[in-house]
Design goal:
Blueprint lengths: L2 H17 L3 E5 L5 H9 L4 E5 L7 H17 L4 E3 L3 H10 L2 E7 L10 H8 L2 E5 L22 H13 L2 E3 L5 H10 L5 E2 L16 H9 L3 E4 L16 H15 L4 E3 L10 H8 L6 H4 L24 H8 L4 H19 L5
Parallel strand pairs: 1-2, 2-4, 3-4, 4-5, 5-6, 7-8, 8-9
Helix pairs in contact: 1-12
């Protein structure tokens, strides 16, 4: 392809990105001016922001929620708190970044079903049922028993359906994921994972689960986190390797059920903290212990998409792969927007 074609493709991608509603299905970065500049450089309209660390109790979670709401208010020219789909459109129109409060673990519920309502009342719109390990709702993806949803977990899913909170299954065990898809009366999401048929990592999901997810109207956010991607040489995966994951998911599930969940974490942890939890010898060796010496803090995302400000490369490369513009807009965020409109009823 000649230089003129490349320039035209880049211009076409920039115009598409500028007009699209772009939603990052999962991000753990802080609410700061510096991060706002990164989001805007990547064209982001709204983000499912992890509001509290994954292993905290209700008291600390409430404090973290209050802190983030305060940060959004202090930077109101940059950020907008999202409680319904109208807020996402408002963020797009005003050039701000919509912050969707999300939790990556339902541990703060303990065994109190009414806390689902409390968290929703405080602005939480997306909640992951488990984070790798077992809680009172079900098993995470690193639990060897893979026991599935508990009776309380079934009640939690139904209560989330009732009040309009999106069920996220990204770090759940396979059986817990299947159970939740079957039990839920609303579509659910796997906001940041990849197909395990390509990379058989506990954090990824098998084809039958992904097909069931799509058949029930749910969505998969493809994730550029290095351990759940693959490079042919066994080293650090690249943007192109991750885009091949998108191709696979689109062929398997249909393009309307595919989005992006970066799991990007700019400035949210020190290298030492990160190594303790997620390094090769960290807390979850089932997920990262098999990786080569190439894997570390600086290489934790695929080469070419290590920060959200690089997101502009994605539409350009998808267009080069032959995707229609409407399908690229869906992958960038319109598919997530449609899911939110379904799960947050009457709030569009």
């Amino acid at each position: 392809m000649g230089g003129g074609d490349e320039t035209a493709a880049a211009r076409r991608a920039r115009a598409l990105l500028a007009g699209a509603v772009v939603i990052d299905g999962l991000n753990t970065s802080p609410v700061t001016w510096e991060q706002y500049k990164r989001f805007r450089a990547g064209g982001v309209t709204a983000v499912n922001l992890t509001a509290s660390p994954v292993d905290l109790d209700l008291d600390r979670t409430l404090s973290d929620l209050a802190r983030i709401v305060g940060q959004v208010a202090a930077l109101q020219d940059c950020y907008l708190l999202v409680t319904d789909v109208r807020d996402i459109h408002a963020a797009k129109a005003s050039g701000r970044v919509g912050v969707i409060l999300g939790l990556q673990n339902a541990k703060p519920l303990d065994d109190r079903l009414e806390r689902v309502w409390v968290l929703h009342a405080l602005g939480v719109r997306i909640m992951q049922l488990t984070y790798n390990e077992r809680n009172c709702i079900g098993d995470g993806c690193t639990e060897p028993t893979d026991a599935g949803l508990s009776r309380f977990g079934v009640a939690v899913v139904r209560e989330m359906n009732r009040i309009g909170m999106l069920v996220d299954l990204s770090h759940c065990g396979v059986r817990t994921t299947r159970d939740a898809i079957d039990v839920s009366e609303q579509p659910v999401a796997i906001t940041h994972a990849n197909p395990s048929a390509i990379v058989p990592n506990p954090r990824n999901k098998p084809d039958d689960v992904l097909c069931a997810l799509a058949q029930r109207g749910g969505m998969l956010g493809l994730c550029p986190w290095s351990p759940i991607n693959a490079a042919p040489e066994g080293g650090r995966p690249t943007l192109d390797d991750w885009l091949s994951m998108i191709d696979y998911a689109v062929d398997l599930m249909g393009v309307d059920h595919v989005g992006i969940g970066t799991d990007h974490s700019a400035d949210s942890a020190t290298k030492e903290e990160w190594e303790r939890l997620f390094g090769r010898s960290g807390r979850y060796p089932e997920v990262t212990g098999h990786l080569g010496s190439w894997f570390g803090f600086e290489t934790r995302f695929v080469d070419g998409f290590q920060s959200i400000d690089r997101l502009g490369r994605v539409p350009e490369e998808l267009l080069r792969r032959g995707y229609a513009e409407a399908d690229v807009r869906g992958i960038l965020g319109e598919n997530f927007l449609r899911l939110f409109s379904s799960v947050w009823p009457g709030r569009t």
